[in-house]
Structures
1.
Amino acid sequence: MSRLTRRQAVGAVTGAAAGLALAGVATASADDTTPAKNPAKNKGEAAKPKGAGELAPFDEVFQGRRIQGMPADDAAAHAHGHGGHTNGYRVLIDGRELQVMKHGKSGWSSPINHYVRFETPLDAARTAVTSLKGAVVVPFDPTA
Amino acid sequence: MTIRKNQANLTAAEKKAFVDAVLEVKRRGVYDEFVAAHRLRFALDMNTGVYVGHFGPSFLPWHRKFLIDFEKELQKVNWSVSIPYWDWTADNTVASSIWAPDFLGGTGRALDDQVMDGPFAYSAGNWPINIQVDSRPFLARNLAYRVPSLPTRAEVDAALAIPTYDSAPFRDGSAGFRARLEGADGYLSMHNRVHSWVWGQMESSVSPNDPVFWLHHAFVDKLWVDWHKLHPTSAEYLPAGATADVIDLNETMPPWTSTTPQNMLDHTQFYTYA
């Protein structure tokens, strides 16, 4: 399974992915985790931080992509003046913003996975990585 | 009169006529306006928390109007074309004919989920993905990856048996037919599950990039019709009025300027289901 993961990561670079994915792929070669076909891991259930709360910051490499999450106040320093709706939390995939939205008790969503709800922004980020297969997020801000 | 048919019953000529009309609407640049409208609606709903297109009662009339508008564009190309519906309770495998190269094409390749066959394959040159939330320029699918199965007929029947259209608070988890059918009372179910089953763009806010979007939503719309036949004395739409942050029966559904759920209740003035 880990070989397959690596092949997918390499394929992402030779395929449609931009250079942004490249930095993550080097990490993926040394990373034997996160087989793409493991639904539990895709949903982030396997490695959920315990007791940290859904708004805990995170910074990890998942399937070769760097995913970061932080409460929006902290994120402002990284945001380069982006004025979009933050909903109190900011998620980045290889430095690009993945908009996440909280919907009351039903959980979080992102534009990449819009028909589901996630318990945490980390779950939303990991599933988006699984969806993208090396492609990069293109932020869409209707108020911009 | 527009008659929407089960896609499984279409002749080869009917499939070709539909595909050709879709490709022509795309070539004219009009198709992408629909994708952009869906992306915008979803983003605004998410940002404002006023759920117009999804996760609220107007999910069904909003998409009914969306499909009517799209069907009109198809018919400008070919008057005989209508939107077929995909009964995903019956045609529920990756081997179903809907995914054949003579119709919508199949699942994506492992490398990047790119659809490689059929009229909407990137290599065919007629289906660039222009309205995006990610950098993929090609139609992507990974059928049965995220969830292994599609909703069953028993699940549909259970939804149809619910006598109430929707109920307070008229949002994600509301009790009633609408939320059950949408799959918003337990995610990865029903309408939402079908989007996730197809994966690729269908899972995202630019889901109309996949032509199966229209066939999926035609079936969802047909189920609203079927539900009303089963419950003729139930209000076909709720809430009737005075509900904050919810589209009431006689309130306008953006982006349209004069379309209300009430305007959408009699579908037979626009089409019927075979």
Note: The beta strands of chain A are 58-62, 65-71, 89-93, 96-98, 101-102, 108-109.
2.
Amino acid sequence: MQEETLINKEISEDAKTEQVCIEEEYELVYERPYTLVDRHMHYCPGCAHSTVHKLLMEVVQELDIQDKTVGVAPVGCSVFAYDYLDIDMQEAAHGRATAVATGIKRILPHRYVFTYQGDGDLAAIGTAETIHTINRGENITIIFINNAVYGMTSGQMAPTTLSGMKTTTSPYGRDTKTMGHPLKIGNLIAQLPGAFYVTRTAVNSPLNVRKTKKALLNAFKYQQLDKGTSFVEVVGNCPSNWKMTPLQTQDFLTNEMLKVYPLGDIKLPAPEDLVNLDIEEGVV
Amino acid sequence: METEVKLMKGNEALAEAAIQAKCDAYFGYPITPQSEVLEYLAREMPGRYGIPLQAESEVAAINMIYGAAGAGGRVMTSSSSPGISLMQEGISYIAAAELPCLLVNVNRGGPGLGTIQPSQGDYFQSVKGGGHGDYHLIVLAPSSVQEMADFVFLGFELADKYRNPVLILSDGAIGQMMEKVTFPQHEIVKPQKPWATTGKSPYKERNIITSLHIQPEKMEEVNLRLTEKYKKISENEIRYEEIQTEDAEYLLVAYGLSARISHKVVELAREKGIKAGLLRPISLYPYPYDVINKLADKVKHILTVELNAGQMIEDVRLAVNGKVPVSHYGRMGGIIPGPDEILKNLETYIK
């Protein structure tokens, strides 16, 4: 017993010394943003949600707008987003997040208001709200996670499911003749005058993670201009319901998803609209 | 200062009252017979008080109400029967999240697309739920243009007091008719809403507006809290009017438009020597069960008069608890019975 204690003590002294070394030699370059609650997430391993949550909260931290931000969670896998984001939030009925956000923004025009929605929520049951909110040019940011499947209800076909893709409700593959086509809602809403900024990103590589962060930063900053709706589509993955390992989902995402949903800006603000706004330029 | 008497439509009086009650935002969608509310507020709110917004649907409108009420605003929507049906999911969420707001149903005939004429066919929907789950709205039934205005002030006050949605259940006739109305100065008190999502300050926990409680114990805790609240509302907020009930042998029970007509029935009956009286529930939830129960001790027969197939009669029977016979007289399809017609029906129960 005594010997063990002695050894433990030695180890702990060693650790202390090591700690001091770390503090002396290394500069802290990364940590969890204080706006992100320190707890385990319920998301599946490898899912894009956790990365996007983190980026979102980094943006809120960097812009120093924790006290000025109100978020809206959807129904879907991210229904519990408010458990992780240390900001005021509302949980909307399925598909109605942008209507809820409209109500919030009309009462609190000087707050940063965003919705965080999946493909079923935003592009199926909530399509009318999505289109009309953007058509009114509501001064909010919409974050759209497109992983081509209903995640929370365990893998049913979504409006964005790829042609031929198997899901629990398209067990023989999505037949576009009878089940409709993958809905490119980002391209659709970009046609609306109320859409100020529409972009499509992914978080499948360090570069794309940084690009997504930049897109989110700009999308939030644009709310200072009150010129319309900012829309950031993140092409995500779903290891559990795609029935793949996280690594396999990256291949599927690159080889299949991005062919239908290519990354890049779909609608950019006119340069004259951005005068005096410190926006995020290139990322690398 | 003398209060000015105005001649207004019920819907317009309600809309004017909303501005005077400092309603921060109105979200609505056109539907007959209540479109005047949206039109009036679209015209009058800018420059006076509040933000009017025409939503893309009643579904969107009620969810805008959710967001705006959750952000601490004093907010209102109005619609008519089919539109109110569309709102029911949102109303259930609002009740669950305990968001104060004012809802208005200018009841028209149904089911289905029905008719644009007045009806009281939405009684069950209004007082028994409408949406899913265990919840109640506070339901107020105006029977005059003046009450259309008055209940806006009362409705906002009750909504804030109990953090509960309040429904004004009107109908196509009360909404469309023109009457004298006054707007006495109300002292508008908007309480602090520390629970609202207005932005998390570093000094407090974040505010979350949600109706999702996935843990059964947590959900039941919320259910029990709501039940306790409804009990308190039932204890404190029962409103009704009694007309010549002191010596009545025959009691009419009617609300809203039916109560106006039934008032005339009482007069005609008295002229004929029939001792008739009227009990007019003003709050349909909470319902004046005890008052009706006590009246049942004194009367020979109770007749409920409703513009439906017999809905409120179930609550009257619950109240009466078998003490005396209770019967129903009603017309549907937007047809409004005259006092003579109702009196004739009442006389069939007089031995």
Note: Chain B has twelve helices and 15 strands.
3.
Amino acid sequence: MSLTPPVAGPIADAWLVIPLFNEATVIGEVIAGARETFPHIVCVDDASTDGSGRAAREAGAVVVTHPFNLGQGAALQTGIDYVLRATDAQYVVTFDADGQHRVEDAAAMVERAREEEAAIVFGSRFLDGRTKPGLLRRIILKGAVWITNQQTGLRLSDAHNGLRVIRRDAAEHLDLEQNRMAHATEIVLQLARTRLPWVEHPVLIVYTDYSRAKGQSLMNSINILIDTIVK
Amino acid sequence: MLDQPLIKVILLVGIVGVTILLTRSTAGARHQAVRRLLLVGFVLLAAMAILFPPLLTQVAQTVGVGRGADLLLYGLTITFLGYVAASYRRMRQLEQQNTVLARHIALSDAIRPRPGSTNGSAHDPR
């Protein structure tokens, strides 16, 4: 992939926020791979029952453990709160636990935020043709993009992408109340309200059999839609 | 007024029971006062309907419904929907409070690990 220039050295002023729920088989590997570039990682263990939290801690991440399962949106907010309260990091990078995001994309997005003084960098899998989501998934994702754009007034090409870089001043505006999956629209909405400069950055989503099986089903996208409309 | 005394007594007792249950819950003062006034009205109406069933039918017919029982069913449907909406709102509220509380506990544990806790290793955040 020649699109992303190699980034020299670890990125010390950014924290990776990884919501974690029952990903024990992959989380260790994901964190170990990410730590070469991002030495600071906070994993929010959303009351996993398969030892994911221990695996994450052994791989070298800070682990914040929810006392019971709250949902991915809640885990994301907890991770962001941790970074804001316990560190003086400039950037929060939201990252998925299942290994579908690439560390080099995240690093390139932080660089881009720095260079272009963007407060928010949204990852988008639709800016180029590299990501192959399959027809049904593409239709659902494009529908989600359309709804998000209607609600937020932004013109994004991808909405439900978990890879984002959020500068500290923008992150301080976040107060996610959608505990489950509808947070993806809510986070865009709240970031749009900050009126801070944002850009989209092309990323490659690595669809493995694992992430496909874990991914959002068609039925759940109906839940997300209703959660988004009925607050 | 005193034919079928058994069912009338049972229904009246039921209404008194619900009344006690509802008035004992606490909320904001104004909210509570409004609810109590509504409740008193409801109790009076319910008692009237039990003691003088034809009255209910008469009311039903004035509003264009055939029988009093039908009117009750419609009223019940509306009340039920209102209940669903109110309890959904309440649930969301509780969920939100729950989340804030759980997050606070999780962060406190991670930032200042309790001695002897297996949670949140002594990883010092920068």
Note: Strands of chain A lie at 14-20, 41-45, 62-65, 91-94, 120-124, 164-167, 198-202.
